[in-house]
């Protein structure tokens, strides 16, 4: 807000920009870049930072996106994200326009993600720099069989990674993520916990660290989930199957400054299980346009071009608003969205019943 404009004095801006040079420690570079991102949330600051020619330095830093040093890799990720979303460089091609997605058939779903999570242009790496608990699901859903995917830990902090159905809710500002409802189960390698239905229990693996590989096996025949750390497996988890037996997605939630990379089978696994399994990449399919993860300003431009009917649902903007919530009486939702809510989004009153107005049904 206005306070951040006053905070970004010429001296602070100069200090943050100088912290991006290669003489600085990568940790200093990373948090200087994140600070500049935060300042750029106001249009005046964004213009001030952009006018400083920051993009020239970011172009050098984005070469670190695949650096084997995981701290430098974080700097590279944030530099590339900033170039694509905030500090645009005239003549620079957006990363999504040049990334090769030919062999990627399953990825993180940029349309099924909480608002502040950053997803890489190839759709396989995610990072959170917000103060909320950000979540995302994969594009591919499984109903039967045995499935496996892996995650490379880029940062060793709090993340909850595992499996979730479409009924699992993302309440990022309230701290609810994967493993915090009855429709999901998650592995937490930082706190050494397994999460289900917002309750945790300790596991026997050591704390994860940068570069570790976490394996996630879902066996819908035996109704069990098995978690692995660098090939070492834990006992099977089965509690989620009392509430859900199909419709599972790979999913993850991230606390502040956390990042990891997903492998859904587009490249060989580091620690494949001994049992026979399938991979998302072998069975999923995405059209070319479905693989594109647009920068935020381009997504917003497309949204502004979309015309919305006067009588559409205020949540999904697709269906007709034909449902009244009682007892509050608000009626700007469709029945499908209303069934997913426990309180009215306008007045926060508890919903006791939902009534569809027949006259609105075509």
TrEMBL record:
Any one of the GO BP annotations: proteolysis involved in protein catabolic process
Recorded GO MF terms: ubiquitin-protein transferase activity; zinc ion binding
Start and end residues of each B30.2/SPRY domain: 86-269
SUPFAM superfamilies (UniProt xref): Concanavalin A-like lectins/glucanases (SSF49899), RING/U-box (SSF57850)
PANTHER family in UniProt: RING FINGER AND SPRY DOMAIN-CONTAINING PROTEIN 1, RING FINGER AND SRY DOMAIN-CONTAINING
Domain of life, per lineage: Eukaryota
UniProt KW keywords: Metal-binding, Zinc, Zinc-finger
KW DNA-binding (keyword) present: no
InterPro entries to which the protein is assigned, alphabetical: B30.2/SPRY, B30.2/SPRY_sf, ConA-like_dom_sf, RNF123/RKP/RSPRY1, SPRY_dom, SPRY_RSPRY1, Znf_RING, Znf_RING/FYVE/PHD
Domain RING-type, chain residue ranges per copy: 313-348
Gene: Rspry1
Keyword Metal-binding found: yes
Gene3D superfamilies: 2.60.120.920, Zinc/RING finger domain, C3HC4 (zinc finger)
Pfam families (alphabetical): SPRY (PF00622), zf-C3HC4_3 (PF13920)
Name of the protein: RSPRY protein
GO cellular component entries: cytoplasm
């Amino acid at each position: 807000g206005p306070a951040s404009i006053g905070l970004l004095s010429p001296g602070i801006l100069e200090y943050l920009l100088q912290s991006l040079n290669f003489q600085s420690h990568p940790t200093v570079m990373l948090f200087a870049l994140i600070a500049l991102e935060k300042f750029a949330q106001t249009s005046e600051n964004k213009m001030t930072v952009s006018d400083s020619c920051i993009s020239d330095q970011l172009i050098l830093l984005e070469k670190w996106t695949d650096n084997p040093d995981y701290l430098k890799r974080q700097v590279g990720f944030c530099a590339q994200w900033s170039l694509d979303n905030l500090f645009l460089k005239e003549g620079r091609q957006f990363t999504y326009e040049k990334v090769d997605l030919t062999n990627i058939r399953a990825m993180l779903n940029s349309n099924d993600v909480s608002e502040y999570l950053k997803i890489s242009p190839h759709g396989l790496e995610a990072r959170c720099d917000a103060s909320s608990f950000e979540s995302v699901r994969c594009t591919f859903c499984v109903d039967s069989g045995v499935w496996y995917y892996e995650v490379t830990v880029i940062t060793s902090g709090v993340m909850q990674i595992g499996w979730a159905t479409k009924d699992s809710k993302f309440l990022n500002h309230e701290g609810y993520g994967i493993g915090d409802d009855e429709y999901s189960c998650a592995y937490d390698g930082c706190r050494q916990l397994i999460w289900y239905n917002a309750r945790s229990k300790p596991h026997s693996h050591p704390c994860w660290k940068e570069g570790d590989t976490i394996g996630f096996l879902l066996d819908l025949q035996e109704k069990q989930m098995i978690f692995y750390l660098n090939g070492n497996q834990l006992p099977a988890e089965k509690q989620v199957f009392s509430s859900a037996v199909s419709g599972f997605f790979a999913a993850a939630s991230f606390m502040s400054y956390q990042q990891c990379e997903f492998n859904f089978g587009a490249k060989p696994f580091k620690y494949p299980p001994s049992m026979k399994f399938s991979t998302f990449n072998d069975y999923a399919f995405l059209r070319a346009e479905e693989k594109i993860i647009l920068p935020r300003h381009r997504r917003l431009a497309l949204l502004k071009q979309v015309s919305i009917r006067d009588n559409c649902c205020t949540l999904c903007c697709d269906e007709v608003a034909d449902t009244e919530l009682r007892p509050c009486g608000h009626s700007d939702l469709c029945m499908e969205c209303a069934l997913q809510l426990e309180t009215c989004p306008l007045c926060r009153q508890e919903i006791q019943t939902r009534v569809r107005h027949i006259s609105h049904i075509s």
